[in-house]
Amino acid sequence: MAFLPANRAMAVRPADAARNFFFVLPALVIFAVFYIYPFFELLRLSFHDWQGIGPMHWVGFQNFRELMADKVWWNSIGHAGYITLIALTFQNALAFALAIACDREIRLKRFYRVVFFIPPVLSEVVVGILWNWILHAGVQGGEQVGLLNNFLVEIGFPQMVHNWLSDPKTALTCIAVVHAWKGFGWGFLMLLAGLQTIDRQMYEAADIDGASPWRTFWNVTLPLMLPVIIVVVILTILGSMQVFVLILSLVSQGLVYHTEVPVTRILGAMSGTNQFGYACAQALVFGAMLIVLSFGLKKLLNRVRWS
Amino acid sequence: MARDRSVILRVVQNMFLHVFLMTVAVACLFPLFWMVRSSLMSKAAIFTDHGLIPRDPHWGSYATAWVKGDFGIYFLNSVLYTVCVVMGIVIIGSLAAFAFSRLRFPGRNILFTLFVAAMMIPLPGSFVPLFVLMSKLHLANTRLGYVLCMINVGLSFSILLLKTFFDKMPTDLEDAARIDGCSRLQIWWHVALPLARPALAVIVVYNALNVWNEYILATLLLSDKSLMPLQRVLMVFNGAYQVDYPILMAGLTMTALPIIGLYLLMQRYLVKGIFSGAVVG
User: What CATH number corresponds to the domain at position B259?
Assistant: First the structure.
């Protein structure tokens, strides 16, 4: 009886129900212990002052009040926002352009598709260390070395040589560029999948009507792609705002103030200064911000789908 | 005439497209080339020789990294964690997905919604309470603790994907097996799992990538060097006062190559997973 498709309303014998329940039990236990419990622990800790060991003190909203006045924290959100902004504009525009270029009969299509997704399968640690080596490999004999700096000398711009990753003016942009290098393949693949669902007849009709390629893009491609674009935007925001391992591995010369992002702040409060309560308060506020942002965009997505 | 012009126009257009696409492709591949190239330099030449191809390839860094740098141990750790987590997710996830799709029990829909909601809600900094919990359970600095945490990371997505797959699967074969006297567990193992192979492939690639590349939990939970996976150790190497770049680059290459290989082999399935993820998201 119990095997019948779910939607058929039929009573289940208690013994059967119990036996069926055993199938989800392992997943449920892991989920409860490693997801649900930590979530409530996060809530609880954010109202306490705790050093990781020793007594725990209830402090009410003090962690949150402290957070509101924490300039470094709000700056770190600004930094993540900057990385996200570059990801949303340059990275996604590049991904879209590449997807449009690959959405036609063109040779080597498969090759491009495979290659563009190689950076995303690499770990943030590998990408960070590799680009650290390219952008800034340290100082040898009083001179800045590294592939980029050497290249600048070779092509005759020795005045541009500098320490790209520890100069406050360039560090964050370097992070954003490396992040975009690692990430554009995701957007590319999703947008390409979206483009391939568009009926070719739409383009033919536009062509017969004498529409220019530009007009076809604005009036046919873009409106039809809007749902996919919004999904890509949501995923880009969630991914870029929470970036941190890439920064840890790219800026290996110790975390400096101008490359702090929210998650490195959380990590720092926890393992750097042992303020577990404060770390949890930060995590909670940041998580809430992300949820509001992504659900707002999801609402927009639904409206687009229905209109 | 007009036809000729449009053909020429198209050829020129395609040329520009190829230049554009090729530039980006080279930008993707060049850093990886540079990584391998740097790993083949000797310690003396790496800062002085600016050539593209090492004049005198120096393969010793790989042996040094593997033996003296203990990368052999870390590599095996990474393989062990990846295999254990993926197997755990496949078994636990498919059991649950099978039940959510085919079996009836009270609270089924609520539980399933919970799993899906967990996937959608971003939880930055969840490593803080997880770290506290693992210490309390005496699972910090153990292989088991790390594997369990990582199973949890991939579980929701895998259950969702498999359940959607099971829902679309016809029940005929399962009915036949039931009439032949198969138990629920036997049907799951002998009928449902083999049929779900395409979905399982997606789950295997996606999670293997995820575990192999994981860094932060490995850092917080594993403090014994003998337990560390590659990603963690690369960071230790990178943070050293005097970085030995040829060996670090050899380590990077050893870490990156298996995952690139897996990707090239199972590329089709990974792409499928991303599309289903995009639809769900």
Answer: 1.10.3720.10
Q: What is the pLDDT of residues A111-153, one digit of tens each?
A: 999 999 999 999 999 999 999 999 886 666 666 778 888 888 8
> Among partner residues A24, A123, A186, which is closest to B100 by beta-carbon distance?
A24
Of B120, B155, B235, the CB nearest to A125: B235
Read off the pLDDT of residues A224-263 as tens digits, 9 standing for 90 and up.
899 899 989 999 999 999 999 999 999 866 556 788 999 9
B 115-154 residues with CB < 8 A to A? 115, 118, 120-133, 148-149, 151-152
* Torsional sign, CA A235, A238, A240, A243: negative
Residue A87's domain comprises 70-306
Give A189's contacts in chain B (Cβ within 8 Å).
271, 274-275
Identify whether the C-beta of residue B37 lies closer than 8 Å to the C-beta of residue B53. Answer: yes
> Does B6 contact chain A (CB < 8 Å)?
no
Contacts of A147 in chain B (CB under 8 A): 34
For chain B, how many residues are written? 281
Q: What is the pTM of this model?
A: 0.91
Q: Look at residue B254 and tell me if it is in a domain.
A: yes
In a domain, B30, yes or no: no
Task: Report the residue from B124, B245, B267 with minimal CB separation from A262.
Answer: B124
ipTM of the complex: 0.92
CA separation for the pair B41, A147 (Å, rounded) = 14
B16 in a domain, yes or no?
no
Alpha helix segments (H runs only) across A87-212: 92-102, 109-116, 118-121, 124-135, 147-154, 168-196, 200-208
AA identity, residue B62 = Y
Find the domain containing B181 and state its range: 70-280
Q: Would A49 be classed as within a structural domain?
A: no
Report CA-CA distances (Å) from B98 to B156, B159, B171, B205: 14, 9, 12, 20
Answer yes or no: do A124 and B215 touch at CB < 8 A. Answer: yes
Judge whether B40 and B59 are in contact, CB under 8 Å. yes
- Flag whether B47 is in a domain: no
- A228 lies in some domain: yes
Q: Say which CATH number the domain at A138 has.
A: 1.10.3720.10
Number of domains in chain B: 1
